């Protein structure tokens, strides 16, 4: 299993996995399948361009040359908040769940962020209807610091999110 930063050359494969994630788990992401499927290949490439390393990006896990999991991050803007980074878009294909791949992706992202030298807090939000994901993040070392009621809405159904953080020592 290979885990590495994704670049523009991975855009087409990344878009397939991203759209799959949005279709299979629509309540787990802030984006929608309908919005994301409108993106052009150039927009997907731009999303994966590393023009400002350390500001945002994605990691992908590969099995037999195919992306089977992704995790993204973005640094908060502004001088007073640049020490914080948000983890986003964590997804592992069903065929690879339970394999340790999610932990590998998370550890790759955390190692990268720690290596930047000026990040000391990693944040994420996870829907409370996914207790397995909450337990996974807790096992990695994340702690809950709050909840956002009605954070996401899919149709007429609302989803609350647990807000979690990990401090670097």
Structure description:
The chain has 169 residues and is of the alpha+beta class. 30% of the residues lie in helices and 36% in strands. The chain contains five helices and seven strands. It has a seven-stranded mixed sheet, with helices on both faces. The longest helix is centred in the middle third of the chain and has 15 residues, at 101-115. It is globular, with a radius of gyration of 15 Å.
Secondary-structure topology with pairs:
Blueprint: E1 2-5, H1 11-24, H2 33-36, H3 41-48, E2 56-63, E3 66-75, E4 84-92, H4 101-115, E5 121-127, H5 131-140, E6 143-154, E7 157-167
Parallel strand pairs: 4-5
Antiparallel strand pairs: 1-2, 2-3, 3-4, 5-7, 6-7
Helix pairs in contact: 1-3
Largest sheet: 7 strands, mixed
How would you state the average pLDDT, rounded?
Answer: 94
| Contiguous uncertain segments of 5+ residues | none
- In total, the number of strands is 7
Q: Output the helix-strand order.
A: EHHHEEEHEHEE
Instruction: Give the overall shape, derived from the CA principal axes.
Output: globular
Strand order of the largest sheet: 1-2-3-4-5-7-6
Any idea what the radius of gyration is? 15 Å
Strand content: 35-45%
